[in-house]
Write a structure and sequence with these properties.
By secondary structure, the chain is an alpha+beta fold. The chain is built from 7 helices and 4 strands. A 4-stranded antiparallel β-sheet has the order 1-2-4-3, sandwiched between helices. Helix 1 crosses helix 6, helix 2 packs across helix 6 and helix 3 runs antiparallel to helix 7. It is globular and about 60 Å long. The two termini are 33 Å apart. The mean pLDDT is 97. Bound molecules: flavin mononucleotide.
Length: 223
């Protein structure tokens, strides 16, 4: 698979088939992603890979706590800036509206939208999941390193015929995940990620998000 094809076909998959991903495949993907660059070659990332029964334990524990704390236990970082300005605000709004339109859930149907959002906490059906952490001493530069590691995993997954879904949503259940996985105090949870085969029959299987025109983000100087 060409890099451009992996990039083009990587999308956030929100409907997976239940077939587990073999450990060898996951190890191959992670070993490959370790080639991602990082400032000073710090390789600041840490990854916790889960499948059943631990995956199900996480799902059940969070489900059990949802009635009491529907918004979660609280993330350790702002998932989005508290006062998101334009054009970012509209982009965020539109991707949500486009996704719910594909799912046939209107704006007024808050209950169904919430129920769909809660699928995050079932990894959208992904049989395997990963959680990503970094040591707390890390700074902005290392967050960028982690991002490169994450994208490398997503692209290599495509080469293995798999899809991925990054999930910051899990950050709101940090204490629960920390406890179940035994994540040490010096590490901070960034996000989760579902990985597996896509359910090609699902209405979201052909959902493709938009991108801003190049002129909105790039300026060329001396050309
Ligand atoms: C770090 C990160 C965290 C994300 N967290 C979530 C999430 O919790 N739930 C979700 O449905 N999508 C999540 N997304 C997916 C984004 O909404 C998605 O990447 C964006 O809309 C672009 O769509 P695409 O990935 O299909 O190209 C996340 C993406 C990234 C990069």
């Amino acid at each position: 698979m060409r890099v451009s094809e992996a990039l083009d076909t990587r999308r956030t998959c929100r409907a997976f088939k239940p077939e587990p991903v073999p450990r060898e495949t996951l190890e191959a993907i992670l070993r490959g992603a370790q080639r991602a660059p990082s400032g000073g070659n710090l390789q600041p990332w840490r990854v916790y890979v889960v499948q059943d029964p631990v995956r199900q334990q996480i799902i059940d524990t969070v489900h059990g706590k949802m009635a009491e704390t529907p918004r979660g236990e609280g993330a350790e970082y702002h998932i989005y800036p508290p006062e998101l300005t334009e054009p970012f605000k509209t982009r965020r709004f539109e991707v949500g509206e486009q996704m719910y339109a594909k799912l046939g859930i209107p704006r007024e149907d808050k209950g169904s939208r919430l129920m769909w959002f809660a699928r995050n906490f079932e990894f959208f059906g992904a049989p395997t999941a990963m959680f990503f952490t970094m040591d707390r001493q890390m700074q902005e530069g290392q967050w960028s390193d982690l991002g490169m590691f994450l994208q490398s995993i997503a692209l290599l997954a495509r080469e293995h015929g798999l899809h991925t879904a990054f999930q910051e949503a899990w950050a709101v259940w940090t204490p629960t995940i920390v406890e179940i996985l035994g994540i040490p105090e010096n590490e901070m949870l960034f996000c989760g990620m579902g990985i597996g085969e896509e359910d090609a029959e699902h209405p979201l299987a052909d959902f493709r998000t938009e991108r801003a025109p190049l002129d909105d983000l790039a300026s060329f100087h001396g050309y």
